[in-house]
Every structure is written in C-alpha cells, then in structure tokens.
Design goal:
By secondary structure, this protein is of the alpha/beta class. It has seven helices and five strands; from the N terminus they run E-H-E-H-H-E-H-E-H-H-E-H. The chain has a five-stranded parallel β-sheet, sandwiched between helices. Monomer.
C-alpha cells in the first residue's frame, strides 16, 4: 500500500470508467474515493436538474468548488467529463498527478446508452463524439498518464495506475 501525499485525479470523457476505476484504485491504495459528480448531486440535487435550472456555467461553478474541496486531501478523485472546461479547475489540476482515461466510441456506446447525462440527451453517441473531440486537447494537456479503457480489463488499468502512483507520482 502506498501512502498518498496528494490527491490523484482521474479525468476523461463520459463513459471512460473514471468512477469504476477510481473506486478500485482508492481501495488498492487504502484511501478514500471521491466522485465530484456525486458530491455535487448530493449537495445540490440531480445534475440534469442543475443543468436545467442553473445552466452549464452555474453547474460548472458548483463542480469547481467540489473539485477544489476534494483535491485538498490525499484521496483518489474522479471528475465529471466536463470539469476540465473550467480554467480554475485546470489550474488546480496542474499541481496534481492526473490520469486520463480514454475510450473509443465503439466501446463507449453500450456504456452510455439509456444515460440521463444532460449533454447526451438529444444525440447520444454523435453528441459524445463531438464533446470528446472538443475536450481531447484539454485532457491531453493535463494528463500525466493516459490509459485506454476500451478493451482492457479494469483490473489491468487499476494495476497500472497503482504502480504509477507507487513510483512517486503522488
């Protein structure tokens, strides 16, 4: 077990497996796991409702606060796919070890079908592709380690992150 000195942050597009991987990495490292989407929903209500009532900028402000609070401790943190759109959030992430999880459109299709994710409401996979392409440069710029979750067992992705963290990246 590695003693974390700082938060380890997982970023990536919707459906890449950030929450599933993050929970397992945290368990392996013996630390807490925080999903900032869940924090926002628990404290402020369902994310689709927040998007409707506050708009995306209002939601991003709540998300930014949740990220700031989460990364202030040595935990594993999973961010919502769009958290990187906020400049203040990106500035926080530059000081931390960041893992980018990627996934192909083919692999993500079954993961996002039937989703209540507000940004996918109308166009599903086509919307996912457009959003992922738009955010890809931000993800790449912030990532210290990039792993694809499309076809690898989650246990392998988790092991890679735990090994990486153990080499003094966190």
């Amino acid at each position: 077990m590695t003693a974390l000195q700082t938060a380890v942050v997982l970023i990536g597009p919707m459906g890449a497996g950030k929450t599933s991987v993050g929970k397992r990495v945290a368990k392996s490292l013996g630390v807490r796991f925080i999903d900032t989407d869940r924090v926002v929903a628990r404290e402020h209500g369902p994310i689709p409702t927040l998007f409707e009532t506050l708009g995306e900028p209002g939601f991003r402000a709540l998300e930014r606060d949740a990220v700031r609070d989460a990364v202030a401790q040595p935990v594993v943190v999973s961010l919502g796919g769009g958290a990187v759109l906020d400049p203040a959030t990106r500035a926080l992430l530059r000081e931390l070890p960041v893992v980018l999880l990627t996934v192909t459109p083919e692999a993500v299709e079954s993961r996002i079908s039937g989703s209540d994710r507000p940004l996918l409401h109308d166009d599903g996979l086509a919307a996912w592709k457009a959003i992922a392409a738009e955010r890809a440069p931000l993800y790449a710029d912030l990532a210290d380690l990039t792993l694809d979750t499309s076809h690898r067992p989650l246990s392998h992705v988790v092991a890679d992150i735990v090994t990486w963290v153990g080499t003094d990246h966190a």
